[in-house]
Write a structure and sequence with these properties.
The protein is an alpha/beta fold and 227 residues long. The chain has helices spanning 2-39, 42-68, 80-89, 103-118, 133-138, 173-182; strands spanning 74-76, 92-98, 123-128, 143-144, 146-151, 154-160, 220-221. The protein has a domain at 73-183: Glutaredoxin (3-Layer(aba) Sandwich). The protein has 6 helices and 7 strands. The chain starts with a helix and ends in a 6-residue tail after the last strand.
């Protein structure tokens, strides 16, 4: 019994010593950091300040450049010709091919308006599919709404209908933001491995990959397409 007590005491002392040591290491590290700051002369502090100001200035400059190119708001472009010009001058572009009579396009509009303000690093556009037959043919757009996701002038990905968004008209702006993040067309800070709609039991937990339709040359609504 006494031997047991002794071994417990020894263990406790060892443990306390470990805790003291690690606390000491943390404190020493903090002391070293504080000392480093204390020892910095005026010039070094000034250089540090200048570097931070320069980084801030560059980020402001970049923001202004984006805004001057029409980022920061969700807007309609009048023609196919405008599409090529807009895409040429921005690295990341999301273009919504819509039709006035398609109810789901209005749902998409609502979410894109919010995201355009939040993600000024990306240009958000809309283009009437009926006024852009050449582009729709070239980009093989069959279902309305379709989002073309463009990086460096090349269409990298599509969001066709609401299949990728939980297959519901009630998808959240966060769900669309996540899907754009998956395509790397916006700076996404969430976890790409967890689609927001998967946490909502209502929409089920299976993520269905996009089911592309192959009806040639005909644009049709996802409204009337309830898979």
């Amino acid at each position: 019994k006494m031997a047991d007590d002794t071994s417990v005491d020894i263990l406790q002392k060892v443990l306390e010593n470990e805790i003291l040591q690690s606390t000491k290491v943390v404190e020493e590290h903090l002391d070293a950091e504080i000392q480093k700051l204390d020892q910095m002369d005026e010039d070094e502090l000034e250089r540090l300040k200048q570097r931070r100001l320069e980084a801030l200035r560059k980020s402001q400059q970049q923001k202004q450049e984006w805004l001057s190119k029409g980022h920061g708001e969700y807007r309609e472009i009048p023609s196919e010709r405008d599409f090529f010009q807009e895409v040429k001058e921005s690295k990341n572009v999301v273009c919504h091919f819509y039709r006035d009579t398609t109810f789901r396009c209005q749902i998409m509009d609502k979410h894109l308006t919010v995201l355009a303000k939040k993600h000024i690093e990306t240009k958000f556009l809309k283009l009437n599919a009926e006024k852009s037959p050449f582009l729709c043919e070239r980009l093989r757009i069959k279902v309305i709404p379709t989002l073309a996701l463009i990086k460096d002038g090349k269409t990298q990905d599509y969001i066709v209908g609401f299949t990728d968004l939980g297959n519901t008209d009630d998808f959240t702006t966060e769900t669309l933001e996540w899907r754009l993040g998956c395509a790397d067309v916006i700076n996404y800070s969430g976890n790409l491995m967890e689609p927001p709609f998967q946490s909502q039991k209502k929409y089920g937990t299976s993520f269905t990959k996009l089911d592309k339709k192959t009806i040639r040359g005909k644009i049709y609504d996802s409204d009337s397409d309830d898979d």
